[in-house]
Amino acid sequence: MKKQLKIVELFLKSSHFYSGIRLSFAVVAPLVILNFLGLFEYAPSIVIGAFLNAPGDIPGSLKRKVNAILISIGLTMLITTVILFLKPFTLILVGVIAVISFCTSLISIYGFRASLVSLSGLLSMVLAFAIQKETATEIGEHVVLMGVGGLWYLVVSYVFLKLAPNKDGNQLLSETLHLLGEYLKLRARLLTKKSDRENLMQQSISLQTKITEKQETLRELLLLERKRTGRSHYDEKQLLIFISTINIVELIEAKHLDYSEIDSLFENRKDYLKASKRLNKTMGNHLITLSECLIQKEKIPSKDSLLEALQKAYEAISVYVDAITLPKAREGALVLRNLYDYQEQLLQEIRAIRRVMANVNNASKVSIKRQDGRQFLTLQEYRLNVITQNFSLNSTLFRHALRFTVAILFAHILGTLLGIHNTYWILLTIVVIMRPNYGLTKERSKNRIIGTLIGAVIAIGIVLVTHNVIVYSVLAILSLTMAIALLQQNYKSGAALITINIVLVYSLINPDAFLVIQYRVIDTIIGASIAVIANYALWPSWEVFNMKQVLLNSLQRNKEYLIATKALYHDKKNNDLMYKVARKEAFLAISNLNAAFQRMTQDPKSKQLEYPLIYDMVTLNQTMVSGIASIGTFITNHKTTPVSKEFEVLILNIENSLQASISILNNSKYNEIKPSASISNAEEKLLEGYQLLSKLRDQDINEGNSEIDTETLHRLQEAYLISNQLIWMKTLSENLKKATFKYDAVLKENL
């Protein structure tokens, strides 16, 4: 019961619920005020304007938010005017619907916020069919009032933002910390769950994608907006927490363990991994608790459990060495030691978050320069040539625009010919659920239908129990608030609540609520069916063919990340910024690759060509990022020895392999840069360096010097890490080149 109450409390304090309240206020206030003033006939148009222009109001830069809503107001007014004037001219109207549907949906090319502006425009086209305005005066009055409603919503949004300026930032940070906590717990299971490892790896891909999406929004919110307005003390705190989440992601990525090696070393000794596993779980649970504290504003928990788990992980290394004995235990001990060091660094970042949340004085300082911070932002290109570049059947969004246009036209003509009541509900369903990806459209269709049926059943229950207008009004407001709050989190629940809201609103106008419910269910099923069939049959965008560009981008970013890491090894001070920017781009690229792969798994099995091959390529790219991150993290956090010639030779070899993969996908020629020495000799010398340090350490042990000083330990760790990681990454890059060649051949064969 206590857990359920906490879930409710977190929801009621969330920015999602706050968004529901904001939109409900923007919609209800004009109804109440204008009714009180005796001007209620103007209220519906204003409410429609407020509702239509709300989608663009998402977390991020205030300037971008205002621009999006203003553009949305202009677009919805224009589209509504055109549709209302051309309603009597059936044939012309069909052509105009096609033009509006295609052009408006193509706006999505300019990114996520633009896609929401596009949604507003498409919704205005559909709702215009429900509006009964015939004369030019009536149409003009309605459109002007819609614009007033849009501006009213913009004012409401700004006021709500000023009342709770940190709400969105806290929510995003909370969700990021929660996802990181879940990710750490999943990594703990990966250590020992050999039989379930592939399924866990799939889950980790999904979690990584979600974390990166949250961090991208946070970058805009915390870097772009604060760059213009300056940072308050609370902004500094949010930025410090965000930076720690970035560091945690890199540390997690850096420790992409060779599970086959762990299975080999600890096959019958998994008890020695329990302490490390428990530490990961403890840190994961602690991050989840901190995420809740951000929302609830509660006192942060004690760090004792963290320190105790860390101490036990450290002691487990000695227990292992004592039980197995050196030198036989050396490789296993180094694996445990490297794992411990990584977890200790994770714990430092978690403690940094704790200090910020606890308001510890001088816990840390933010040292990001404004010009440097801009380099970490992913800026959207808004020039006209973005559309011209996508004006081809090779573009996923262009094909979606064509597909969507045909679906809308078909639904409109079908509804007109069959005399379907409220045809615009069918159109509305298509607008809301149809996406460029077949799998997502199918999933949203299923959830929409189930949610509508659930909402219809609940609405029937309400209508049977009471006919009280006040009850209907209160429940309509509550259902709207909850629907908006849940729509992004749980689409099925959101759809159910929207259905309840629509039925209750119609019940206030029309006493025959059961007829409304019947039409609502039937029209939703028809609209969802048209959307799914269109996605499957009309210029289908199967993800297997869209993967090429995403893979290419990931390979290019991996290469740049590798080069930046090499530069960091040479000079930390002057190359730190370049390294961090390259790291951000590589992580974003691998997240996009993971997301594309997830979409591919939602496509029909028959359309998932060479699934094992693509899965291998995604895994190889992911592992390559982790390998580079492990070297970069070690360099960042340790004093390192001078860069060896062998390091340069192997890095160049990996660069060559990555560039070869890029050239295969680009269909371009590539001239390989020859290394200055033999690859095999470089490998041997790197391994010899580690073996020499190991022998010297063995001599110390034989002479009774069992304790190891920090400098020797770090040199041993560096030699082990660099030699093993580079040889491993060399193999990865070669396997990636082979897989890329096979993938390119499959594409050419099937296109």
From TrEMBL:
One CC-aspect GO term: plasma membrane
Pfam families recorded: FUSC-like, FUSC_2
Transmembrane segments: 21-54, 66-86, 91-109, 115-131, 143-161, 404-434, 446-464, 470-487, 494-511, 517-539
Membrane topology, from the record: Multi-pass membrane protein
Main location as per UniProt: membrane
Family (UniProt): Belongs to the YccS/YhfK family.
Protein name in UniProt: Uncharacterized membrane protein YccC
